[in-house]
Structure formats: C-alpha cells, structure tokens
User: Which sequence fits this backbone?
C-alpha cells in the first residue's frame, strides 16, 4: 500500500513536478509511487536512439530516475503519447519544431483514450494511496496529455484518495503548500532529471525559464486556504 502516488503522462514529468516531494515524503517515512500513462514515444531522441526504440529508452531512463528518487512502486502504461505537432501548436509555438528529432506517435494521445481513467482507478484500488499528485486541470502548460491526465486522475481518485496538484507559483490555482528543497534533496532531484538524457533540451529550457522551480516546488490542495511552508501530508 502507498501513501503518495504521482500520476503523470510522460517519463520525466515525475522529476520536474514532484521530484523533491517524492524525496521528502520518503524521508518522512511515507511509501511513494509513480504511475506513468505513456512511454513518451513522441519525445525527442537527440540522436541517442532510433525513433522506434525511444519508448524503451525512456522507460529505462525513468527506471533509473525512480531509483534515485527512492520510489517504492513504479508502473509504466502504454497509452499513446500526443503528436508533437499538436503539442507545439497548443502551447509552445513553432520554435520547438526545429529543436531536434522526435520519436513516433499518432492520434491525439491521451485525449483519445478516456479508458485511461479506469486504468488509473484500478491501480488506486490496488495500491490505496492516501494522496494522488498530478497536473492541475490546465496541465500547467496546456499539453493535451497533461490536461487529459489531470482529468482522468482527478475523476479516478473520487472516493479513494485526496488529489493534490503541482502548480505554477503564479496561479491560476493558488499555492497552498510550498516545499523549499534542502541541499541533499535538490542534488538528488537534479540527478534524477539528468537520467532523462533524451529529453535534455526540455531540461535546459526549463532551467533557463524557471530555475527557481528546481529548488522550490509548489502545490495546490483543493479545499485549503492560505499558503503553508511545508508538506501537506
């Protein structure tokens, strides 16, 4: 049985959004887990593998990151990753279209697969976490897989677990809990992020635009008012 389950669409989302939370929860004696809905086949390859091998490579990257984050449970599902073209047009603009080769994908990704909700609920019934940590309803950046995952995870958790969103510091969902990572946790989070080698351009872009979010993670616990410096568990 778990205390905290992170539900995300892609390998590397777990480290960006909740790497520090996973480490601090584990240090507090909680049992933690990660459920990833896709194998990230629409991500970049950076020439590190053929496109058809990207799902396997990204799963391996996630497994290494999971070990560093000291996670007790990991499961990677195989729902499809959204087409990168759709992603660019929705939330990043044309610049990323030229930032390196990507893997293979088809369709609208998770938006075309509402059955993912049942798959999440099945895992919640098996693992019985107290908290489900996932993207907020806007997916933070509008990525269709992020939005779909938030929708499915929130509905799947009804009556089973408390949903918590990792959110941007500036809203639109108010920050109710802020984690300032101690040095040891920041070091391990950065090491976990570094395992996602095929997605290094995404990491560099994140570091350039939001460096403070590497050592400070912000969350929204629905039904909570004000901001607490520290965890919600």
Assistant:
């Amino acid at each position: 049985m778990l205390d905290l389950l992170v539900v995300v669409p892609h390998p590397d989302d777990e480290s960006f959004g909740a790497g520090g939370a996973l480490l601090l929860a584990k240090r507090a004696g909680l049992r933690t887990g990660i459920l990833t809905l896709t194998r990230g086949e629409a991500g970049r390859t950076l020439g590190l593998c053929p496109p058809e091998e990207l799902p396997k490579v990204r799963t391996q990257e996630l497994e290494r990151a999971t070990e560093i984050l000291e996670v007790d449970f990991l499961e990677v599902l195989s729902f499809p990753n959204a087409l990168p073209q759709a992603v660019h047009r929705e939330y990043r603009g044309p610049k990323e279209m030229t930032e390196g080769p990507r893997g293979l994908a088809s369709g609208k990704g998770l938006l075309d697969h509402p059955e993912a909700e049942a798959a999440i609920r099945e895992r919640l019934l098996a693992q019985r976490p107290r908290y489900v940590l996932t993207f907020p309803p806007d997916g933070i950046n509008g990525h269709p897989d992020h939005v779909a995952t938030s929708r499915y995870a929130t509905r799947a958790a009804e009556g089973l677990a408390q949903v918590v969103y990792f959110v941007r510091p500036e809203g639109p969902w108010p920050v109710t809990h802020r984690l300032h990572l101690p040095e040891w946790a920041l070091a391990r989070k950065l090491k976990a992020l570094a395992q996602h080698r095929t997605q290094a351009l995404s990491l560099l872009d994140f570091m350039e635009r939001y460096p403070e979010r590497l050592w400070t993670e912000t969350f929204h616990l629905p039904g909570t008012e004000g901001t607490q410096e520290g965890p919600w568990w």
